[in-house]
Amino acid sequence: MEFLALATLFQGAAVQMSRALEECQTLERLALSHVAREETTALQFFDSLTQTLDQFRLLFQRLAEQEDVQAMTISADAVAQMTLAVLREGLAGSSKSSSQYAGDIELF
User: Fold this and answer.
1) Using an 8 Å Cβ cutoff, are 90 and 12 in contact?
2) pLDDT for the residue numbered 95
3) What pLDDT was estimated at residue 98?
4) Residue 60 has pLDDT above 70, yes or no
5) What sections of 34-104 are H helices per DSSP?
6) Using 50, 70 and 90 to split pLDDT, how confident is the model at 37?
7) Calculated CA dihedral for residues 78, 96, 15, 32, nearest 10 degrees
8) Bridge partners (DSSP) listed for residue 84
9) Whole-angstrom Cα distance, residue 40 to residue 34?
10) 91 in Cβ contact with 82 (< 8 Å)
11) 106 phi/psi in degrees, rounded to 5
12) Interval 90-100: pLDDT, tens
């Protein structure tokens, strides 16, 4: 059984939240550029989403830095089951760069 340092998982989650936040901000700018000025209030959900992502980013960063977390490890099984390679590798602390879209695709 493989193990993963909990601090590594938290740090990886913070990085992934940061990337998701950047993508959300890009989508917000794109949407704002295509919406009439009087309809921009409909895009306020972006603000809530970006604030939520940023708060989770900060939480995971603080958790990764906590002294009591530094020596803790967990089974890597849950992370290994993630279907997007970029997330799986990022949460496991891998520095190699897979395509954002590598891995299995789940269709609805």
Assistant:
1) yes
2) 67
3) 53
4) yes
5) 44-65, 77-80, 85-91
6) confident
7) -110
8) 103
9) 10
10) yes
11) -100, 120
12) 999 886 655 55
Give me the phi and psi of 104, to 5 degrees please.
-75, 155
pLDDT band at residue 26 using 50, 70 and 90 as cut-offs: very high
Domain range summary for the chain, segments of one domain joined by +: 3-91
Q: Check pLDDT > 70 for residue 59.
A: yes
Mean pLDDT of the region 75-100: 82
- Per the structure block, which two tokens stand in for 104? 């299995």
Paired tokens of 80: 């290994």
Q: Which long-range contacts (CB under 8 A, 24 or more apart) does 79-83 make?
A: 79/4, 79/9, 80/2
d(CA 78, CA 55): 23
Exposure of 30 by Cβ count < 10 A (0-12 exposed, 13-18 middle, 19+ buried)?
A: exposed
The whole-angstrom separation of Cα 26 and Cα 91 is 23
70 SS3 class: coil
Structure tokens, 42: 């409909």
